[in-house]
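Below is one protein, fold included:
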Amino acid sequence: MFLMEISLSIPCCTPLQAEPLSEADADELAGLLKALADPVRLRLLSFIAASENSEACSCDLTKPSGRSQATVSHHLSQLTEAGILEREQRGKWAWFRLDHERLTGICAAVCATPND
């Protein structure tokens, strides 16, 4: 997988400048960026990232996000399907944590660093 290979070998690089993306890699990256391109999802990610151990129960995200449980669940599902969050069932509640390698891969794919 393109993004995971980057994240494991280089924490931040400029692969978009290194060579053109293949169609498959472009499709994958576009899907990831689409999952992130929503203000509610970005806020949910920030709540989870700022939580202890970068994880949070879905039940604790409705109040700070100002959204219903159904809306929060929908957005968390989208982020989970994209591989940006990992989901763990604990009793009747779902807990979510960031997939740091996946986020690093996304950053590495799109973040340009100055050439020295």
Notes: The chain has one domain: 2-110.
